[in-house]
User: What shape does this take?
Amino acid sequence: MWRLSVLLLLSGAALSQDGTRPLRVYFIDVEGGQATLIAAPSGETLLIDAGWEGERDANRIAETARRAGIAKIDALLITHFHRDHAGGVPALAKQIPVRQVFDHGENTENYKGSADVIARYRASTQATRHVVVRPGDKIPIRGLNITVIASAGKWITKPLPGAGAANPACPNQQRKPDEHTENEASIGVLLQFGKFRMLDMADLLWNQEIELMCPVNRIGTADLLVVSHHGKDTSNSASLVHAVHPRAAIMNNGETKGGSPETFDILRSSPGLSDLWQLHYSRDAAQRNAPEQFIANERGTCNGNGISVSAGRDGTFRIRNDATEQERVYKPN
Assistant: This one.
């Protein structure tokens, strides 16, 4: 896994035709949670979520950082306070310095064990600069333009530059039963590096996606889509997926978590999507899973294999499965 990640870093430089270093993104396997490490060409870093409680996920994140030559986290973005996203912060903070923490404010769901997760999170970051973000805010990583799309149950009300077209997926889009959980409060972000755009809406729910994206598309397009909510069918509406028109998508699922059949169908029918990459085989999806070379952890395995991305300012990006060595380059449209 690690040797392949280093090879990606070396080969990724070829993507930047103007001589600049590429953007690097590491999708770390935390087995159905989220931990995405982003290294800007400026040397500054962003970690989106920290996986589950305990040492396993913290160790995987810290090792990925070490292999990538990263000695600190400039910004830690906790998208919401479920344990598969925020639970790993205390263990991680013991292994790698974190300069500042961004979240949506107060926990909105008293799920079983939530008080302990929040208390440990607060205690482990009490000496770190803390910022509560709102829709339209920026996550300050030098060289990147990272816009907060949604936070704390609210979202941008005005289209981003270049967005605002009518969304053809909206008229036939049906709402699903409301779910009043921390997922509803998720922080979603659009990351831009030159012409490259990556959208990560965390675990934002289906109904919130409709409200954000209808009747007009407020986000515009994205080259790379991080599949929402681990691929569950309570997120990933066509009103979002089809409207942003991704060229590739990455699903941070587990074998028995996420990866719903309906989500696979919506992704596969999205106009312009070339490939779906998965951190794990999805047992529920059966024959809908991506070809095995696009799956980092095959059926029945939990090896911690990740997926890496390298992107240039011109919009070209490369995705690599660190387990199978499958690699594909996506050129600008």
